[in-house]
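In line with agreed milestones, the collection of sequences with tokenised folds has grown. One record among many is set out beneath this paragraph:
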Amino acid sequence: MKNFYKLKIKKYIPRLFFKLLKSFFIILNLFSDLKIHKYFKFKFLNRTYNKIKKRINRRNISFFYNIITRTNILNIRSVFSVWLYSSQSQIDKLDFNVKMFNWGCFPDKEKLRKESFMIIDHSLGGGANLYSKKIIEEKRVNSDVLHIAYVPLLNLYRLNFFGVNSSDEYYLKYFSGITILYENLKVSEVFVNNLFSYPKIFKTLDKIIQLKTRFNFTLTVAVNDYLQVCPNYVLLNHKNRYCNVPPVGKCVACMQRNNGDFKIFYPQYRDVFLWRKKFAKLLRITDNILCFSNVSKIIIEKAFRDFNIGNNKITIKHHTLDDIGNIHFPIKHDPPYRVGVLGSINTQKGLNVIRKLLEFWDEYDINLFKIVIIGISGENISNPHLEITGKYDRLQLTEIVKKNKIDLFFIPSITPETFSYTAEEIMHMGYPLAVFSGTAPAERVVKYEKGIILL
């Protein structure tokens, strides 16, 4: 019996250690962002933090690392302050006040318009949030807009209200708290933009279906990723290759061996058939399934062919951009040619493709090209043929591209994508662009006079 307990302790100690290490890593990121060592003498933490980053295998904590240090989900200073100072009087002094929602604190009811438009979204950034901002600006002209998004770091739902000349922000503990809005407002249309990261996602789906049945609003579900098809919303299998949406029987084996970042939010969901069945129930009562490419339409039809969701409801609408202009750039005739890769690069965005290109150029001493990643990389790669500019502001994109003297662009994504804003931005700037065939951007690049399709 003693040996049995010893074995059990040996089995769980590494797991416990890694969990503690995760927590420690997150806290170090928070401290580093706040720069509060001048008050608490945390300089030693920064040294430890840098050592940890260099020495440990970051594969299992890369997602948390990206959330905290590399995205704009929240103001980290505010999140940490709310956590550190728990009394209400101190929280009220901060620049970030977590104001919990109740109907009594809602804006002046007399100024509310007759109809309201609701967007259900995530808060993780990217193209989906860019699109929801555009919808808000369009819809608030004629109606009040309610935007609800789950915030993982707070484990709360953020509710933004956009009225005629005012806006306000509240937080809900549970998604079901939105019911009171439907009971007191005329919500005429609901737009489900993206549900990734929502905890207890099946309950969220059931709640939306319940509200649709009870209040009979117009419901649109957007395909901004492939979360409707699989918890692994990028559709990469356990070998980090595009799965091509195989029969569900193969999905079970894949999910058991798949260690993608999606498991941070959905570690318990392995039954892809049940997953699709739940989403099919929502899609069946939806008035419009909005796709942004023909590729995503084909994937949705393939995944739900046995669920009778009504393919006639699927529409295709390409995103449009009006804030990126054309650039007049000199054509270079002599190498090395500077190949731009726009946006953050990780596994699904083609990190391994870039790594293999660099290895190939090194092996055969090819000095014709230099890759310039305008954005951030999921891994630190040191190579003379590679430059990484770091995070950028979209509004300054044209200036950044000019400054880095880009000659052409390459989108190395190994997944089909649903649209690709970066491809649209590059074409708006007028640069040559190479993409892989069978992807969403390839649909538009094939008609682009400076487009290159790689087979």
